[in-house]
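Lecture 7 notes: from sequence to structure.
We start with the chain below.
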Amino acid sequence: MSVINRMLRDLDKRQQQDRQTVSTPAAAAPKPFPWGWVLGAIVIIAIAVTAVMVIWQTTTSQPEPVEVTTTTAPSNEPATTSTPATSKATQPQQEPAAIVTEPTAAAVPVAAATQPQQRLQPEPIAQTSASDNESQVAQTAQEQVVATPEQPPVADEKPQGTMQVERVELSAEELAEVKLKQAREAMQKGERQRAGSLFEQVIALAPEHVAARSELAAYWYGRGQISSALAVLEQGLELQPQQSRWQLLYAKILLEGGAYQRVVDALRQINPNAAEAADLYQLRAAAANEVGRYASAAADYVVLAERTGEGRWWLAAAVAFEDAQQPDAAMRSYQQALATDTLNADARNYAQQRLNTLGDR
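Predicted structure tokens for the same chain:
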């Protein structure tokens, strides 16, 4: 029996150990994460945020009052007046406005005071899409254009941004000035043949153009065509016999060529007030001396002496008077020459000797 008892006790001990092993608390086992609570909290927060945003948008988006302007009837129909509208919900049958103006500062608080209950929910105007609004405005604008009577264009209005090309015709004098400028530019560039052609075009347009004819004569003279230069000047002198600039060029060319009598004939009339008068008197006196017209030469020298006050012209006049067999006039001219201080020593000695010689006669 003792053996059996020991076996029974051993079995009891083993069963107790097995129970202790089975009934060991699961303290070390991991606990599951509370995802349900987290998701529930996120959903609640999202709902709260959405509600706050809806309330905020409702309170801030107040409908702006619009001013509806109706078109004017073309006939005797009564014209409608413009009335402010707070929202489309209060006037569902009214046509959309054709012209929308910005609300004044006083219209905003009035609309807010008249609609305190609409802040809790969005208004019907907020539910309409932008495309619907644009189509309604376009349709109203089209109706307004059709209803408005056409007005005649204002006569004073001029199209902006247009360019008109007007053809301006130059006169002969203006065209001559343009061609003269071109001729001078051609001369500066060395295009002499083109310049000569342009000068001829100028005098063809304006035969009495002094500068163009003078420069054309100088052009031909520079090319060695003396006859062409003289012909140009002669044509001008036929139109203006006392044109001093043409006379001076003509006389210089003739004097250089030895045509003294032609110089005297060309300078029969000299304008004493011209700027070239002194040169013209000198050329005529020199040519007159060459052809034996001493008295005429002496007279021109006297004019030069009186105009300039130089002793050399008095001395030249005295010599011309001697050649003209006018001793008294020669003595007076020698005395005038000695009275000036513009003669050098040799000229003064010569004048004194001639004066003494004429006085001894």
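Points to note: Residues 22-29, 65-135, 140-152, 154-158 have pLDDT under 50 and may be disordered. The longest strand covers residues 66-67.
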